[in-house]
Write a structure and sequence with these properties.
about 280 residues, alpha+beta, eight-stranded antiparallel beta sheet, 8 strands, HetReg/Transcr_Mod
Length: about 280
């Protein structure tokens, strides 16, 4: 065990969590510890520990939120992970690119709502409406495809990348919701819900919000996410991260996200094509 991780019960919890997080990132050369962070309401406001510190003191208390599968590499094309230099132990510097800003979000989708048909379809309708408003430049069929892909995070029920056939029942359900008023075709909607749950893995919506960015991309992000947060892609990260701008140019770490259309390095390729410079994000 590294000397830095030897038990020292005289240290404040804040210092223990900071040291452990830095060590895990450095030793593993990976950012899985950041991807696993789930903030509770009020965490960022209280700031008892840095927003980027993994809360190992909360193991087993993650709620209904499911981990994103290891199907993506949004940072493909960026350099290897780098935490940068800095003298302030409360600040973690990471390098990457800004992708977009979050324009709007839905309410949190809970596990219990998924098992109550009325609440489930009500939330789906609100998500669909948000996407239609944010993607006015696209026809409804394109919006529905993007939303279905997002709700399933491109994941089939067998854990692999979902194909068109596996996503189709979810698309048909969204088409039905768009076409009819609530309760107008309940039996058909129930059947499509059942089939969609058999072909797609939509449990990743649990305890998350749907987001729409300024450029109209839709995605799934942490429950504490809000309008004005930014979506970034970081060296060494397989999924995008959501940050919240703070005072003096710093950021707070909000959590990991799925954002449709940038999960396989597309945003990095666009960044390279524009010859833009990578940024340093100083997280507190």
């Amino acid at each position: 065990m590294s000397p830095a991780l030897m038990p020292d019960y005289t240290k404040p919890l804040r210092d223990v969590l900071k040291t452990a997080t830095r060590h895990m990132i450095a030793e593993a050369c990976a950012l899985w510890i950041l991807r696993s962070i789930k903030h509770h309401p009020g965490d960022l406001e209280l700031a008892e520990v840095p927003s980027w510190a993994g809360r190992s003191d909360r193991v087993g208390a993650r709620g209904d939120e499911a981990e994103f599968p290891n199907l993506f590499k949004s940072s493909k094309g960026l350099d290897k992970i780098s935490m940068g230099d800095g003298n302030d132990s409360d600040v973690l510097n990471i390098h990457g690119v800004t992708v977009d800003k979050i324009a709007s979000v839905t309410t949190i989708f809970s596990y219990s709502e998924h098992h109550r048909f009325h609440e489930f379809t009500h939330w789906l309708r609100s998500a669909l409406q948000l996407c239609l408003e944010g993607r006015r430049h696209q026809v409804p069929a394109q919006v529905i495809r993007a939303l279905a892909t997002t709700l399933a995070i491109e994941c089939s029920s067998n854990g692999l990348r979902a194909g068109e056939g596996e996503l189709r029942p979810l698309e048909e359900l969204l088409e039905e919701l768009l076409r009819n008023n609530p309760g107008q075709s309940k039996e058909r909607e129930i059947e499509l819900c059942r089939i969609a749950n058999l072909t797609c893995d939509i449990r990743h919506t649990f305890d998350r919000r749907l987001l729409v960015t300024n450029t109209g991309r839709c995605g799934l992000g942490p429950s504490i996410m809000q309008s004005g947060d930014v979506v970034i892609i970081v060296r060494g990260a397989d999924v995008p991260f959501v940050l919240r701008p703070a005072d003096k140019g710093y950021y707070q770490f909000v959590g990991a996200a799925y954002v449709n259309g940038i999960m396989d390095g597309e945003a990095v390729e666009k960044h390279h094509n524009t010859k833009a410079i990578q940024e340093t994000f100083a997280m507190v």
